[in-house]
Design a protein that fits this description.
Layout (H helix, E strand, L loop, with lengths): L5 H16 L7 H12 L8 H15 L12 E11 L2 E11 L5 E9 L5 E4 L1 E5 L4 E10 L3 H6 L2 E9 L2 E5 L6 E3 L8 E3 L4 E3 L10 E3 L4 E9 L5 E8 L7 E4 L1 E5 L7 E9 L6 E10 L2 E5 L6 E4 L1
């Protein structure tokens, strides 16, 4: 058995690096011949052809871009928010997801009504989610009147302080806005840009009609492109098997400037089904986003 010396190992590593980094479709014959021959001419003559074939195959595999990549959460993301109440008092609240960068951290919502003074409301830890992230929730009473928020709006952004750094979710620099009037909807979704609807009226909501044996799915999505696909993946046997159904466009959300849409689907199920677990996928611009209840999936029970 031949022994490769240290410098020969270096030559092989150089070859592996070269074919791994340069995309295969960009390596012209002359380029390939020039670079590879310079390197391989110095590799030990008895290096197995099988080994080289394996390395080349590995390089081709590395060069293939992943398809249907899952969008990842940011350091801090609004999940959802809504505003409610009437004469008995107004309030708003929602969920925030943060990257768990340290045990000691501060998660806050910074908000104001109609260009007034900014107020900070602290969020509270709820649970761990996925990929080393955490779910936090916030709630705050609003002193302004219903009329103030019908003619104007509540504006807010999310602040995350950890390890001496401050991270923001400012909705791309525009901040989030809630209103009871024409300025904005009374709810917002953040990242992922798809969210199951359980309570926002008059839009299609998600519920299990146990009398008719039909599961209804109502979903909000951010309008990130004209061509989009929204699907529900559901299981009636605790994910031993699953099925998928496509949702259909319902309507644009009022006062959203066509930035939010409502989608819906109704799926008949057997009268023997007592439990349905599900999640929602939203594919747009070549990227698939999931609302899987931050790792827990959603669930209907009879």
């Amino acid at each position: 058995m031949s022994i490769l010396y240290d410098n020969q190992y270096i030559e092989i590593i150089s070859y592996i690096w070269y074919i791994s980094v340069v995309p295969v479709h960009l390596i012209t014959k002359s380029h390939y011949d020039k670079e590879c021959l310079l390197i391989m001419s110095r590799v030990h003559s008895k290096l197995s052809y099988t080994v080289l074939s394996f390395v080349l195959l590995l390089a081709v595999f590395i060069s293939i871009p992943p398809q249907n990549a899952q969008a990842q959460p940011n350091t801090v993301d609004l999940v959802n928010a809504s505003m409610s109440g009437y004469f008995g008092g107004l309030f708003f609240g929602g969920g925030i997801e943060v990257d768990d960068l340290n045990y000691t951290k501060q998660v806050k919502v910074v908000w104001r009504v109609n260009s007034g003074s900014w107020t900070e409301t602290s969020a509270s830890y709820v649970r761990d989610t996925t990929n080393n992230h955490e779910l936090w929730s916030f709630y705050s009473d609003i002193e302004e009147s219903y009329e103030d928020l019908s003619s104007g709006y509540l504006e807010f952004k999310v602040k995350y302080v950890v390890n001496g750094q401050t991270y923001w979710d400012t909705n791309g620099g525009s901040n989030y806005k809630l209103s009871f009037g024409s300025a904005a909807p009374s709810f917002a979704i953040g990242n992922p840009p798809v969210r199951v609807n359980f309570s926002e009226v008059p839009y299609s909501s998600s519920y299990f009609d146990t009398t008719a044996n039909v599961a209804h799915f109502g979903v909000f999505v951010k309008n990130l492109g004209f061509s989009k696909t929204v699907k529900v993946r559901y299981s009636t046997d605790n994910w031993a098997t699953y099925s998928e159904a496509s949702l259909a466009y319902d309507t644009a959300v009022s006062n959203s400037g066509s930035t939010l849409e409502s989608w819906k689907a109704s799926v008949p199920v057997s009268s023997t089904v007592n439990n349905i677990k599900y999640s929602i996928s939203y594919t747009v611009n070549g990227v698939t986003y999931w609302d899987n209840n931050l790792g827990l999936n959603y669930e209907f029970n009879r």
